[in-house]
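STRUCTURE:
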């Protein structure tokens, strides 16, 4: 389900990930054009869409202290509380983001943090927009320790944050670019999901104020979705 690309540039990895798909789509379009002209045009449109799907725009995250940014582009479909038993234990505030095939599919770090854990869970591949049904889908969980700012200097505390990458009906591969032991900055690229999927952001309940609601569109690494509550 998960692959780890080689090379030194994570940005280039996103482009390389799409090359086999673009080549295959181009070959299909070429063959289709020899059969029917309209089929060739349809194949060309499909090839352009495939190339566009693997876009990976550069972004400058505002990185305001104490703010959690969206880990993905897409539509917020749920904001709720759930039980969490991995890395973040107990009740968790969850923001659910659905990525359609038209969205950028590069996931990004929601906050400055240490990536300390990674876990894969096998499962099904139900439509990712089904909040309840997608709970059975295969997924990858990334566990971070973020710093919660404290009014008194030197008293900041580590807060467990989890980003859940969930496969959908069309997605069968999660490409990972960050691994436990690395430190990330808000907006850094974490990996890529293919062809429609879902990304969840979890924080300990009672530690954050959610800034978005279902129906909002968000942009990975740009849109603030929550902020830590200062006690």
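SEQUENCE:
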């Amino acid at each position: 389900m998960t692959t780890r690309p080689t090379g030194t540039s994570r940005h280039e990895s996103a482009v390389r990930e799409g090359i086999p798909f673009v080549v295959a789509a181009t070959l299909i379009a070429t063959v289709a054009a020899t059969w029917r002209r309209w089929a060739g045009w349809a194949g060309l449109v499909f090839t352009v869409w495939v190339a566009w799907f693997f876009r990976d725009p550069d972004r400058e995250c505002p990185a305001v202290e104490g703010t959690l940014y969206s880990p993905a582009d897409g539509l917020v479909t749920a904001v709720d509380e759930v039980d969490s038993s991995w890395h973040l234990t107990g009740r968790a505030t969850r923001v659910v983001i659905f990525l359609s095939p038209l969205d950028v599919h590069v996931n990004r770090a929601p906050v400055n943090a240490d990536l300390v854990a990674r876990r894969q869970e096998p499962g099904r591949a139900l439509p990712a927009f089904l909040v309840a049904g997608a709970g059975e889908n295969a997924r990858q969980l990334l566990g971070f320790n973020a710093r919660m700012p404290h009014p008194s200097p030197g008293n900041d505390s580590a807060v467990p944050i989890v980003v859940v990458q969930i496969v959908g009906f069309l997605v069968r591969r999660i490409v990972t670019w960050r691994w436990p032991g690395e430190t990330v900055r808000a907006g850094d690229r974490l990996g890529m999901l293919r062809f429609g999927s879902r990304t969840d952001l979890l924080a300990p309940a009672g530690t954050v104020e959610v800034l978005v609601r279902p129906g909002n569109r968000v942009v990975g690494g740009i849109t603030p979705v929550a902020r830590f509550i200062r006690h």
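REMARK: Residues 2-53 form one domain.
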